[in-house]
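Glutathione-dependent formaldehyde dehydrogenase
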Amino acid sequence: MRALCWHGKGDVRVDDVPDPTILDSRDIIIRVTATAICGSDLHLYDGFMPTMESGDILGHEPMGEVVEVGKAVTNLKKGDRVVVPFVLACGSCFFCRRGEHSGCDVSNPNAHMAREAMGQSPAGLLGYSHMLGGFAGGQAQYLRVPYADVGPIKIDSGLSDEQVLFLSDIFPTGYFAAELCGIEPGDTVAIWGCGPVAQMAIRSAWMLGAGRVVAIDRVPERLRMAEAGKAETINFDETKVYDRLMELTGGRGPDRCIDAVGCEAHGAGSADAVMDKVKTAVNLATDRAHVLREAIMCCRKFGTLSIPGVYVGAVDKMPMGAAVNKGLTFRMGQTPVQRYLRPLLEKIEAGAIDPSFVVTHRLPLEQAPEAYKTFRDKQDGCIKVVLRP
Ligand code: NAD
Ligand code: ZN
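Tokens:
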């Protein structure tokens, strides 16, 4: 089959690779009909994620048609149409039973590697490095889905691929991020980033009772899409984010802050000015957490900071003094997608949201290398790419 393989920093290629086969009785194989590129893939593309190997198949936002079913999978059959969550979870360990599927204790066969880096191992993830399981990803014609008796959700309705595809990751992730905020009716929610995750977080914040949503980015098309979602926007190239957020909230700061950017943001850097302004004793060096620092400085006292943005390894120069003295609550994590699949599919079916609004580019799998560049560099108004294998 054809699959998009990682070969090093900025080097991805569509290669001929062997078709996947059933390796465990809980596996299924799907023929991928649609598969997206995620901001998380950019951390791999940009070479920030260790334990990648040349030839690894990328992709963790796939859906498709079931073509083969392992013996232990009784809830799915050949021909079913499924969306596959990026988190792999056994469904019965301590964490899965609590709905904390991204903490699954069982699904990462390379748990020893993750433990070395993180103390404990989180769940295995599709197409996301050897430390997180070494599973082949879904930017391919076919995909082996482990723990298929727990993860994939069957789509019975006539919804299009693009309407349901983002259940695999970004819709649950945006919703999870908003939910982690603990939004109280009328709260002001500030969201850093207007990428695909942030776009879903904006819509989710409204669903969860926000009174006001402010979204921050500098890419005009992304700011416009946020405005279409009824967010007020700040272009961080033109306006000082801290000053504007204080102005909008009577000097108090937003109640809830969401960092939907993560590490080594492409074009980060607005926070340094804020840090100067408030004259904290932080000696800024170049590092990869501008947004996190800025959100800590902007958030109101006793507010909540939710972090869906992905950070890899250690991040320094965190103004923890400010966080402690302001009484902030930090919440974060890889999304326990399984928990959200059914309720969010119901929202799509009920017409409460159509996540396909985020798609700007539709391309064949063969053009995936160009698609990665276009998405990374935000060329041509690119916000979300769907590949059609
Ligand atoms: P993206 O790269 O398309 O979007 C990031 C956006 O942040 C861009 O529009 C960029 O212009 C903007 N940005 C950069 N610097 C900024 C700054 N200083 N202030 C404000 N905005 C800034 O990515 P995405 O697909 O939307 O994903 C966003 C983040 O969420 C990534 O870190 C990704 O890895 C992470 N993610 C996490 C989960 C999870 O389970 N927690 C799941 C999916 C994605
Ligand atoms: Zn993703």
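Residues 266-286 have pLDDT under 50 and may be disordered.
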